[in-house]
Amino acid sequence: MKSLWRIPDFLDLELFFIQDKQLEEEQGTAALRDRDRNLYLDAIEPDIDEGTEPDREWLIYRWLQERRSLENQKYDGHALLPGRMWYELYALFWSFFSFLAMASGAVLAWSFLSYTGAQPVNVSLFFLVFVGLQVCVLLSLVLVFAYRRVRGLDLRSSLVLSLVHKGLNGFLFKIRKYGLDGMESRRRSQFAAALAAVRTRGNGYGALFSWPLFLLFQLFGIAFNCGVLGVLLIKVASLDLAFGWQSTIQFSAEFVARLVQWVAVPWSWLPGSATYPDLSQIEGSRMILKDGFYHLASSDLVSWWPFLALSICCYCLLPRIILFVVGTFGRKKSFARISFHRPDHNQLLHRLLSPRLETSPKKNVGKPPLTVPVYQEDTSQTEEGKKRLAEKKIINGELLALIPDELFEDVDSVRLEWFCQQAFGYTVGRILRISEEYSDSTMVLKQIKQGAEANCSALLILQEAWQPPIQEVLRFLRELRLHCDEETHIIVALVGKPDPDTLFTQVTDTDLHIWQQKIATLLDPCLQLSPLVIE
After folding, report:
1. Of 294, 314, 394, 532, most Cβ neighbours within 10 A?
2. How confident is the model at residue 435 (pLDDT cuts 50, 70, 90)?
3. 286-298 burial code (b ≥16 CB/10 A, e <16)
4. d(CA 293, CA 284)
5. In angstroms, how far apart are the furthest CA atoms of the chain?
6. Are residues 203 and 486 in contact, defined by beta-carbon separation less than 8 angstroms?
7. Beta bridge partners of 121
8. Is the Cβ–Cβ distance between 493 and 423 less than 8 Å?
9. 212 in Cβ contact with 160 (< 8 Å)
10. pLDDT in tens, 47-100
11. Number of DSSP helices (H) and strands (E) in the chain, helices first
């Protein structure tokens, strides 16, 4: 299913996640759940084969397609989305870079190969500029790549790519003003937030957005060398070019011949002896300033061009093609590494797959939902309700619930699990008691990975929303993130002021807003703040 995804898809996905957060803040969680559930029932579920379990990534991709369709309907089929904008501008850059590189290579080679009959083309200088410099660049690229592999770094930490990326971003923003200027300020802010989300995802997207820039560099090198090679062959075919070599340093012809043979090793297996000059031709094409070159034989002066052409093919063009292929596979590998288990993905799947359950007696429908003691064994629950409730357990897996001391005794584990399923699509695997001062988190951090070899399971920290978040709570959340993987789903689940009958009450909008402001300072894209008791 990874082959379904392209870079523009992830840009649009981030934009829709931003829009959903704003919709949730303005109209509540129920509006978001109803919209996505209806999308699933009306458009997605009919495409699922009966008896098969839909793939996680496929569901998200189909939801993305439906959201694009709704967006296009909203703007009469002309919705300007970041994915479409990126696709069009990237295609423009491919064409622009190809033309620029080929033109620059052709113009530079034409100036070097300009021959008026007064003096032959200097082989030494031509080889140094068009082959030697590129070989040095490629060798430095290989050394930097090896260094990064040893240090465990990827393309995102490359200084050159970062500088070029910033320059391109600035240029792209100027180009796409034709579309952004016509947008309302709210939509422009959504675009900016989507791009910021991509940049802050860290390991979520990895080097996915750096590979296109790497491929652009290789495309530039391929087109440049094609331009040089094309001009060289055209000049040789249409003009009577003469090539010679000279140097102030008194190199012997034997030394130059050995050097040429060593350089020509990659194509020495080709039939014929005209792929590089032999010793006599090298001696016959040496230019001495005081003697001129009119006494040199034409067969010796034209013996160099196959060597130059094959050198460009072997040491310049072919490595760029190889790097381009490597970059293409690297980009595909980056797609395969993308995780679809971040909080936004989990909550989306929860909204798509979770029916709106009515498991309490119908006579209680009008009762305010401040306390919802639903998950219990009684005769009022239908078999269909129990079946659907069981299905909800497998959407996002298990989590570890961290309960502070002051709440631990009042927590009903059965109700806690039901609310976790209802709000987040998780079941509670373990419950861990933590200190209310959060002063000594060492033992807690050790137990979090108990029985786990690699990553932490999803975490839920229960908090009372009516009490503003203290610095110790924020510090504890930072320690959890450092201890766990960057993609570990951490949920801060809020409850309101407790009633005499239950701890699980709804959170007021004012309390939720205060917590949202504080949690936002952590800049953690995989940290979710949500009420535990939803409408």
Report:
1. 532
2. confident
3. bbeeeeebeebee
4. 10
5. 113
6. yes
7. 243
8. yes
9. no
10. 888 878 888 899 999 999 999 999 888 878 777 788 888 888 888 889 998 999
11. 22, 7
Residue 428's DSSP bridge partners are: 399
For residue 156, give Cα distances in angstroms to 200, 305, 369: 12, 41, 48
Tokens for 2, please give them.
């990874």
CA 178 to CA 172: how far, in whole Å?
Answer: 11
Q: Count the neighbouring beta carbons within 10 Å of the beta carbon of residue 162.
A: 14
100 CB-near residues (< 8 Å, 6+ apart): 220, 223
Tell me how far CA of residue 454 lies from CA of 14, 53, 432, in angstroms.
28, 27, 19
Q: What is the pLDDT of residue 62?
A: 94
372 closest CA partner among 412, 322, 317, 343: 412
Burial of 111 from C-beta contacts in 10 A (0-12 / 13-18 / 19+)? exposed
Report the chain's terminal Cα–Cα distance, integer Å. Answer: 34
SS3 content of the chain, % helix, strand, coil (to 5): 60, 10, 30
